[in-house]
Write a structure and sequence with these properties.
This protein is an alpha+beta fold and 138 residues long. It contains three helices and six strands. A six-stranded mixed β-sheet has the order 2-1-6-5-4-3.
């Protein structure tokens, strides 16, 4: 992975930090009123295609996450790994990574491809613009 000052490096840093936030949020460890980090990172034109093919826009994704506070107590786990830059310019980067979760006695993996746009106001200097997730064999 590129160094953290490159756009790809910032995008990977964003993936790691937002997933750390999600983990803490879903476990109920993050304060329920402290959601600004996620809102600042997810662009207003964000679009997500989940592994089952459902398409959600920014407001729906943020609403779901906000409402899921504390919904996945221990032994829930979440991790991201294997970053790969697919394409990058000075203002955008397409990144691929793997997300693994363990919940309800089951481990799952999904390969994600995410498009980030440079945004100096976002926590890591990039905002999420598009995300597509695909189930992987466990």
């Amino acid at each position: 992975m590129s160094n953290s000052t490159s756009l790809a490096g910032k995008a990977w840093q964003e993936v790691v930090q937002l997933h750390e936030f999600f983990f803490s949020w879903l476990r109920g460890e993050a304060p329920a009123g402290d959601f600004s980090r996620a809102e600042a990172a997810i662009g207003k034109d964000f679009r997500m295609i989940s592994p089952d093919g459902t398409i959600d826009e920014s407001a729906a994704v943020i609403g779901w996450i906000r409402g899921a506070h504390g919904s996945r107590p221990a032994p829930f786990t979440m991790s991201v790994k294997d970053p790969r830059t697919i394409w990058a310019s000075e203002s955008a980067v397409l990144l691929e990574y793997t997300e693994q979760q363990y919940r309800d006695g089951k481990a799952t993996s999904r390969r994600s491809t995410a498009l980030f746009l440079a945004n100096p106001a976002a926590p890591c200097g990039v905002e999420w613009r598009h995300l597509q997730e695909t189930w992987m064999d466990a």
